[in-house]
Amino acid sequence: MGMDKRKTSYSTREQAARAEVDIAQQRYRDLAEGIDHGIVWEADESFRFCMVSRRAEQMLGYSIEQWCQEPGFWINHVYPDDRGRVLAVFKKALTGEDQACDHRFITADGRVVWFHTGVHASRMEDQIVYRGLSVEITYLKEVEEKLKQKTEEAEEANRTKSHFLSIASHEIRNGLNAIIGYAHLLADGTMPQEKRAEMYKHILRCAHDLNDLVNRILDVEKIETGRMQLQANISEVFLPEILRQILEDLRFIWIEKGLTVEFHDDLTAPSIRSDPGKLRQIFTNLIVNAIKFTEKGAISVQILHHSQAKEISVQIQDTGIGIPEEDLPHLFKPFYQSGGVVAPVGTGLGLSIVKKLVDLLKGRIEVKRQQGTGSIFTVTLPYDAC
Protein backbone atom coordinates (compact mmCIF):
# COMPACT_ATOMS: atom_id res chain seq x y z
CA MET A 1 0.00 0.00 0.00
CA GLY A 2 2.72 2.45 1.00
CA MET A 3 4.82 1.41 -1.98
CA ASP A 4 1.95 2.13 -4.38
CA LYS A 5 1.54 5.61 -2.91
CA ARG A 6 5.23 6.35 -3.39
CA LYS A 7 5.06 5.15 -7.02
CA THR A 8 2.02 7.30 -7.65
CA SER A 9 3.71 10.32 -6.07
CA TYR A 10 6.87 9.78 -8.13
CA SER A 11 4.86 9.40 -11.34
CA THR A 12 2.94 12.60 -10.59
CA ARG A 13 6.13 14.55 -9.98
CA GLU A 14 7.64 13.13 -13.19
CA GLN A 15 4.57 14.12 -15.19
CA ALA A 16 4.65 17.59 -13.66
CA ALA A 17 8.36 17.96 -14.50
CA ARG A 18 7.75 16.83 -18.07
CA ALA A 19 4.87 19.28 -18.34
CA GLU A 20 7.14 22.07 -17.16
CA VAL A 21 9.77 21.06 -19.70
CA ASP A 22 7.13 21.01 -22.44
CA ILE A 23 5.92 24.46 -21.39
CA ALA A 24 9.51 25.80 -21.34
CA GLN A 25 10.20 24.31 -24.76
CA GLN A 26 7.00 25.81 -26.15
CA ARG A 27 7.91 29.21 -24.73
CA TYR A 28 11.36 28.89 -26.28
CA ARG A 29 9.82 28.01 -29.67
CA ASP A 30 7.35 30.90 -29.42
CA LEU A 31 10.20 33.26 -28.59
CA ALA A 32 12.30 31.98 -31.47
CA GLU A 33 9.45 32.27 -33.96
CA GLY A 34 8.58 35.77 -32.74
CA ILE A 35 11.89 37.33 -33.80
CA ASP A 36 11.11 39.04 -37.10
CA HIS A 37 14.58 39.68 -38.49
CA GLY A 38 16.51 36.94 -36.76
CA ILE A 39 17.02 33.18 -36.85
CA VAL A 40 17.33 31.15 -33.64
CA TRP A 41 19.27 27.93 -34.14
CA GLU A 42 21.00 25.00 -32.48
CA ALA A 43 23.74 22.88 -34.04
CA ASP A 44 26.22 20.15 -33.14
CA GLU A 45 29.99 20.34 -33.43
CA SER A 46 29.86 19.34 -37.14
CA PHE A 47 27.43 22.24 -37.78
CA ARG A 48 24.49 19.92 -38.40
CA PHE A 49 21.43 21.89 -37.30
CA CYS A 50 19.00 20.13 -34.99
CA MET A 51 16.78 23.18 -34.56
CA VAL A 52 16.20 26.33 -36.58
CA SER A 53 13.34 28.80 -36.37
CA ARG A 54 10.83 28.95 -39.22
CA ARG A 55 11.88 32.53 -39.93
CA ALA A 56 14.94 31.08 -41.69
CA GLU A 57 12.77 29.71 -44.47
CA GLN A 58 11.05 33.04 -45.00
CA MET A 59 14.26 35.06 -44.90
CA LEU A 60 16.59 32.87 -46.96
CA GLY A 61 14.36 30.61 -49.04
CA TYR A 62 15.71 27.25 -47.84
CA SER A 63 13.42 24.67 -46.22
CA ILE A 64 13.90 23.65 -42.60
CA GLU A 65 14.57 20.11 -43.86
CA GLN A 66 17.56 21.40 -45.86
CA TRP A 67 18.93 23.14 -42.79
CA CYS A 68 18.60 20.06 -40.59
CA GLN A 69 19.24 17.17 -42.98
CA GLU A 70 21.86 18.24 -45.53
CA PRO A 71 25.42 17.71 -44.23
CA GLY A 72 27.42 20.93 -44.16
CA PHE A 73 24.42 22.92 -45.36
CA TRP A 74 24.96 26.01 -43.23
CA ILE A 75 28.71 26.48 -43.57
CA ASN A 76 28.51 25.80 -47.32
CA HIS A 77 26.15 28.75 -47.72
CA VAL A 78 28.18 31.17 -45.66
CA TYR A 79 29.88 33.54 -48.13
CA PRO A 80 33.22 31.89 -49.11
CA ASP A 81 35.38 34.84 -48.05
CA ASP A 82 33.78 34.83 -44.59
CA ARG A 83 33.91 31.09 -43.76
CA GLY A 84 37.33 31.07 -42.13
CA ARG A 85 36.45 33.99 -39.87
CA VAL A 86 33.08 32.43 -38.89
CA LEU A 87 34.67 29.06 -38.05
CA ALA A 88 37.26 30.85 -35.91
CA VAL A 89 34.46 32.54 -33.94
CA PHE A 90 32.76 29.18 -33.28
CA LYS A 91 36.06 27.67 -32.16
CA LYS A 92 36.71 30.58 -29.80
CA ALA A 93 33.25 30.14 -28.29
CA LEU A 94 34.45 26.76 -26.95
CA THR A 95 36.61 28.64 -24.44
CA GLY A 96 33.45 29.52 -22.56
CA GLU A 97 32.99 33.10 -23.76
CA ASP A 98 30.10 33.98 -26.06
CA GLN A 99 31.27 35.23 -29.44
CA ALA A 100 29.77 37.24 -32.31
CA CYS A 101 30.68 38.35 -35.80
CA ASP A 102 29.24 39.89 -38.95
CA HIS A 103 29.21 37.69 -42.04
CA ARG A 104 27.49 37.22 -45.36
CA PHE A 105 25.15 34.41 -46.39
CA ILE A 106 23.98 33.28 -49.83
CA THR A 107 20.19 32.99 -50.21
CA ALA A 108 18.31 30.43 -52.27
CA ASP A 109 17.82 32.97 -55.09
CA GLY A 110 21.52 33.89 -55.15
CA ARG A 111 21.40 37.15 -53.19
CA VAL A 112 24.08 37.95 -50.63
CA VAL A 113 22.77 39.18 -47.27
CA TRP A 114 24.53 40.23 -44.09
CA PHE A 115 24.00 38.69 -40.63
CA HIS A 116 25.23 39.46 -37.15
CA THR A 117 25.56 36.05 -35.50
CA GLY A 118 25.98 35.51 -31.77
CA VAL A 119 27.28 32.09 -30.64
CA HIS A 120 27.15 30.26 -27.29
CA ALA A 121 28.89 26.89 -26.93
CA SER A 122 28.17 24.30 -24.23
CA ARG A 123 28.65 20.58 -23.57
CA MET A 124 25.74 18.20 -23.12
CA GLU A 125 26.50 14.54 -22.35
CA ASP A 126 30.03 14.86 -23.78
CA GLN A 127 28.75 16.52 -26.95
CA ILE A 128 29.36 20.07 -28.06
CA VAL A 129 26.22 22.09 -28.74
CA TYR A 130 26.22 25.50 -30.39
CA ARG A 131 23.26 27.80 -29.85
CA GLY A 132 22.83 31.23 -31.29
CA LEU A 133 20.90 34.02 -32.91
CA SER A 134 21.59 35.37 -36.41
CA VAL A 135 20.08 38.81 -37.07
CA GLU A 136 19.92 40.18 -40.60
CA ILE A 137 21.80 43.50 -40.88
CA THR A 138 21.95 43.96 -44.67
CA TYR A 139 20.28 47.37 -44.51
CA LEU A 140 22.69 48.57 -41.80
CA LYS A 141 25.68 47.42 -43.88
CA GLU A 142 24.36 49.27 -46.93
CA VAL A 143 23.88 52.44 -44.88
CA GLU A 144 27.36 52.00 -43.40
CA GLU A 145 28.90 51.63 -46.86
CA LYS A 146 27.07 54.68 -48.19
CA LEU A 147 28.16 56.71 -45.16
CA LYS A 148 31.76 55.57 -45.66
CA GLN A 149 31.59 56.50 -49.34
CA LYS A 150 30.08 59.92 -48.58
CA THR A 151 32.73 60.56 -45.94
CA GLU A 152 35.52 59.66 -48.36
CA GLU A 153 33.97 61.87 -51.05
CA ALA A 154 33.67 64.78 -48.62
CA GLU A 155 37.27 64.37 -47.48
CA GLU A 156 38.48 64.21 -51.07
CA ALA A 157 36.41 67.28 -51.97
CA ASN A 158 37.87 69.20 -49.04
CA ARG A 159 41.43 68.21 -49.98
CA THR A 160 40.88 69.18 -53.61
CA LYS A 161 39.16 72.43 -52.68
CA SER A 162 41.98 73.35 -50.28
CA HIS A 163 44.52 72.65 -53.01
CA PHE A 164 42.56 74.77 -55.44
CA LEU A 165 42.18 77.65 -53.00
CA SER A 166 45.92 77.60 -52.45
CA ILE A 167 46.50 77.91 -56.19
CA ALA A 168 43.72 80.48 -56.58
CA SER A 169 45.23 82.61 -53.81
CA HIS A 170 48.57 82.45 -55.57
CA GLU A 171 46.99 83.51 -58.87
CA ILE A 172 45.06 86.35 -57.22
CA ARG A 173 48.25 87.64 -55.61
CA ASN A 174 50.10 87.39 -58.93
CA GLY A 175 47.32 89.24 -60.76
CA LEU A 176 47.12 91.99 -58.16
CA ASN A 177 50.90 92.33 -58.02
CA ALA A 178 51.01 92.68 -61.81
CA ILE A 179 48.30 95.35 -61.75
CA ILE A 180 50.08 97.23 -58.93
CA GLY A 181 53.39 96.96 -60.75
CA TYR A 182 52.03 98.31 -64.04
CA ALA A 183 50.20 101.08 -62.15
CA HIS A 184 53.48 102.20 -60.57
CA LEU A 185 55.13 102.26 -63.99
CA LEU A 186 52.25 104.27 -65.43
CA ALA A 187 52.75 106.84 -62.68
CA ASP A 188 56.06 107.70 -64.36
CA GLY A 189 55.10 110.61 -66.61
CA THR A 190 58.14 110.17 -68.86
CA MET A 191 56.98 106.86 -70.36
CA PRO A 192 56.20 106.94 -74.13
CA GLN A 193 52.55 106.77 -75.13
CA GLU A 194 52.80 103.40 -76.91
CA LYS A 195 54.34 101.85 -73.79
CA ARG A 196 51.57 103.29 -71.65
CA ALA A 197 48.95 101.85 -74.01
CA GLU A 198 50.60 98.41 -73.81
CA MET A 199 50.58 98.52 -70.01
CA TYR A 200 46.93 99.54 -69.96
CA LYS A 201 46.23 96.37 -72.00
CA HIS A 202 48.17 94.24 -69.49
CA ILE A 203 46.25 95.75 -66.57
CA LEU A 204 42.94 95.16 -68.36
CA ARG A 205 43.83 91.54 -69.13
CA CYS A 206 44.85 90.86 -65.49
CA ALA A 207 41.63 92.46 -64.25
CA HIS A 208 39.52 90.34 -66.65
CA ASP A 209 41.32 87.17 -65.48
CA LEU A 210 40.69 88.01 -61.82
CA ASN A 211 37.05 88.84 -62.54
CA ASP A 212 36.62 85.55 -64.38
CA LEU A 213 38.12 83.62 -61.46
CA VAL A 214 35.87 85.33 -58.89
CA ASN A 215 32.76 84.77 -61.04
CA ARG A 216 33.52 81.07 -61.40
CA ILE A 217 34.05 80.62 -57.67
CA LEU A 218 30.76 82.41 -57.00
CA ASP A 219 28.99 80.22 -59.58
CA VAL A 220 30.23 77.05 -57.89
CA GLU A 221 29.06 78.35 -54.51
CA LYS A 222 25.62 79.19 -55.93
CA ILE A 223 25.29 75.78 -57.58
CA GLU A 224 26.37 73.85 -54.47
CA THR A 225 23.94 75.77 -52.25
CA GLY A 226 21.08 75.49 -54.76
CA ARG A 227 20.89 79.24 -55.36
CA MET A 228 21.66 79.02 -59.09
CA GLN A 229 18.28 79.43 -60.77
CA LEU A 230 16.98 79.85 -64.30
CA GLN A 231 16.21 83.37 -65.37
CA ALA A 232 12.57 84.34 -64.90
CA ASN A 233 12.44 85.62 -68.49
CA ILE A 234 13.32 82.41 -70.34
CA SER A 235 12.96 83.22 -74.00
CA GLU A 236 13.11 81.80 -77.51
CA VAL A 237 16.75 81.05 -78.33
CA PHE A 238 18.20 80.31 -81.76
CA LEU A 239 21.33 78.24 -81.03
CA PRO A 240 23.14 78.91 -84.37
CA GLU A 241 23.03 82.63 -83.63
CA ILE A 242 24.54 82.19 -80.14
CA LEU A 243 27.25 79.83 -81.41
CA ARG A 244 28.23 82.09 -84.32
CA GLN A 245 28.52 85.04 -81.93
CA ILE A 246 30.74 83.06 -79.54
CA LEU A 247 33.01 81.93 -82.38
CA GLU A 248 33.26 85.51 -83.60
CA ASP A 249 34.14 86.75 -80.11
CA LEU A 250 36.90 84.14 -79.86
CA ARG A 251 38.18 84.61 -83.42
CA PHE A 252 41.36 86.43 -82.39
CA ILE A 253 42.35 83.52 -80.06
CA TRP A 254 42.06 80.67 -82.55
CA ILE A 255 43.51 82.72 -85.40
CA GLU A 256 46.51 83.60 -83.23
CA LYS A 257 47.06 79.86 -82.56
CA GLY A 258 46.76 79.06 -86.27
CA LEU A 259 43.72 76.82 -85.82
CA THR A 260 40.86 76.19 -88.21
CA VAL A 261 37.32 76.47 -86.87
CA GLU A 262 34.39 74.89 -88.70
CA PHE A 263 30.71 75.50 -87.96
CA HIS A 264 28.07 73.08 -89.26
CA ASP A 265 24.47 74.19 -88.90
CA ASP A 266 21.32 72.06 -89.14
CA LEU A 267 18.76 74.08 -91.07
CA THR A 268 15.91 71.97 -89.67
CA ALA A 269 16.71 72.91 -86.06
CA PRO A 270 14.06 75.19 -84.52
CA SER A 271 14.46 77.78 -81.79
CA ILE A 272 14.24 76.46 -78.23
CA ARG A 273 12.95 77.94 -74.98
CA SER A 274 15.90 78.27 -72.64
CA ASP A 275 18.16 80.62 -70.69
CA PRO A 276 20.34 82.49 -73.23
CA GLY A 277 22.87 83.66 -70.65
CA LYS A 278 23.54 80.18 -69.33
CA LEU A 279 23.71 78.74 -72.86
CA ARG A 280 26.35 81.33 -73.75
CA GLN A 281 28.30 80.42 -70.59
CA ILE A 282 28.13 76.68 -71.41
CA PHE A 283 29.30 76.91 -75.00
CA THR A 284 31.88 79.64 -74.41
CA ASN A 285 33.53 77.44 -71.82
CA LEU A 286 33.54 74.33 -74.01
CA ILE A 287 34.84 76.14 -77.09
CA VAL A 288 37.54 77.98 -75.08
CA ASN A 289 38.67 74.62 -73.66
CA ALA A 290 38.78 73.10 -77.14
CA ILE A 291 40.96 75.97 -78.35
CA LYS A 292 43.15 75.93 -75.26
CA PHE A 293 43.99 72.21 -75.48
CA THR A 294 44.47 72.13 -79.26
CA GLU A 295 47.93 73.14 -80.44
CA LYS A 296 47.32 72.43 -84.11
CA GLY A 297 44.52 71.22 -86.30
CA ALA A 298 40.84 72.17 -86.18
CA ILE A 299 37.84 72.80 -83.96
CA SER A 300 34.46 71.62 -85.23
CA VAL A 301 31.13 72.91 -83.86
CA GLN A 302 28.09 71.05 -85.19
CA ILE A 303 24.35 71.30 -84.52
CA LEU A 304 22.29 68.08 -84.65
CA HIS A 305 18.50 68.11 -84.63
CA HIS A 306 16.59 65.17 -83.09
CA SER A 307 13.03 65.98 -84.06
CA GLN A 308 11.40 62.81 -82.69
CA ALA A 309 12.99 63.29 -79.25
CA LYS A 310 12.33 67.07 -79.45
CA GLU A 311 15.97 67.77 -78.67
CA ILE A 312 18.91 69.63 -80.19
CA SER A 313 22.55 68.63 -79.72
CA VAL A 314 25.66 70.75 -80.06
CA GLN A 315 28.81 68.75 -80.70
CA ILE A 316 32.22 70.34 -80.13
CA GLN A 317 35.15 68.34 -81.46
CA ASP A 318 38.84 69.17 -81.31
CA THR A 319 42.14 67.64 -82.42
CA GLY A 320 43.88 68.34 -79.12
CA ILE A 321 45.64 66.17 -76.55
CA GLY A 322 42.58 64.07 -75.74
CA ILE A 323 41.47 62.75 -72.34
CA PRO A 324 42.90 59.69 -70.55
CA GLU A 325 40.23 57.08 -69.88
CA GLU A 326 40.87 57.07 -66.13
CA ASP A 327 39.99 60.77 -65.97
CA LEU A 328 36.52 60.45 -67.50
CA PRO A 329 34.63 59.66 -64.22
CA HIS A 330 36.14 62.77 -62.57
CA LEU A 331 36.00 65.20 -65.47
CA PHE A 332 32.99 67.17 -64.23
CA LYS A 333 34.09 67.39 -60.59
CA PRO A 334 34.93 70.86 -59.28
CA PHE A 335 38.63 71.83 -59.38
CA TYR A 336 39.60 68.74 -61.39
CA GLN A 337 41.79 68.76 -64.48
CA SER A 338 42.55 65.88 -66.83
CA GLY A 339 45.70 64.21 -65.67
CA GLY A 340 44.60 64.09 -62.06
CA VAL A 341 45.93 67.48 -60.98
CA VAL A 342 44.17 70.63 -59.91
CA ALA A 343 43.69 72.84 -62.91
CA PRO A 344 45.22 76.23 -63.50
CA VAL A 345 42.86 79.06 -62.67
CA GLY A 346 40.12 79.34 -65.25
CA THR A 347 39.86 75.63 -66.07
CA GLY A 348 39.47 73.72 -62.79
CA LEU A 349 35.96 75.07 -62.28
CA GLY A 350 34.79 75.30 -65.87
CA LEU A 351 33.55 71.79 -66.68
CA SER A 352 31.89 71.31 -63.30
CA ILE A 353 29.94 74.54 -63.85
CA VAL A 354 29.07 73.47 -67.39
CA LYS A 355 27.67 70.15 -66.10
CA LYS A 356 25.56 71.86 -63.42
CA LEU A 357 24.22 74.43 -65.88
CA VAL A 358 23.33 71.75 -68.43
CA ASP A 359 21.49 69.84 -65.68
CA LEU A 360 19.69 73.04 -64.71
CA LEU A 361 18.51 73.42 -68.32
CA LYS A 362 17.20 69.81 -68.22
CA GLY A 363 19.83 68.71 -70.70
CA ARG A 364 22.74 66.30 -70.59
CA ILE A 365 26.42 66.41 -71.51
CA GLU A 366 28.55 63.54 -72.79
CA VAL A 367 32.22 63.25 -73.66
CA LYS A 368 34.02 60.78 -75.90
CA ARG A 369 37.72 60.30 -75.47
CA GLN A 370 40.14 60.20 -78.35
CA GLN A 371 43.43 60.26 -76.49
CA GLY A 372 46.11 61.76 -78.68
CA THR A 373 43.63 62.80 -81.36
CA GLY A 374 41.18 65.00 -79.48
CA SER A 375 37.86 64.95 -77.65
CA ILE A 376 34.17 65.29 -78.49
CA PHE A 377 31.80 67.05 -76.08
CA THR A 378 28.10 66.78 -76.85
CA VAL A 379 25.46 68.91 -75.12
CA THR A 380 21.85 67.84 -75.73
CA LEU A 381 19.04 70.24 -74.85
CA PRO A 382 15.25 69.89 -74.87
CA TYR A 383 12.99 72.14 -76.90
CA ASP A 384 11.75 73.64 -73.64
CA ALA A 385 13.83 74.00 -70.44
CA CYS A 386 10.80 74.95 -68.32
Automatic annotation (TrEMBL):
Q: Where are the transmembrane segments?
A: none
**CC terms in the record's Gene Ontology section:** plasma membrane
Per UniProt, the keywords (alphabetical) are: Kinase, Phosphoprotein, Transferase
Q: Which Gene3D superfamilies match?
A: 1.10.287.130, Histidine kinase-like ATPase, C-terminal domain (3.30.565.10), PAS domain (3.30.450.20)
A GO molecular-function descriptor: phosphorelay sensor kinase activity
Query: Which segments constitute the Histidine kinase domain?
Result: 167-385
**What domain of life does the UniProt record list for this protein's source?**
Bacteria
CDD domains attached to this UniProt entry: HATPase_EvgS-ArcB-TorS-like (cd16922), HisKA (cd00082), PAS (cd00130)
Q: Which reaction does it catalyse?
A: ATP + protein L-histidine = ADP + protein N-phospho-L-histidine
List the EC numbers from the record. Answer: 2.7.13.3
Which intervals hold domain PAC? 99-149
Q: Does the keyword Repressor apply?
A: no
Q: Name one Pfam family in it.
A: PAS_3
Task: Kindly indicate whether the keyword Kinase belongs to this entry.
Answer: yes
**Database matches in InterPro entries:** HATPase_C_sf, HATPase_dom, His_kinase_dom, HisK_dim/P_dom, HisK_dim/P_sf, PAS, PAS-assoc_C, PAS-like_dom_sf
Per UniProt, residues of the PAS domain are 24-97
Q: Which NCBIfam families match?
A: sensory_box
This chain belongs to the protein called histidine kinase
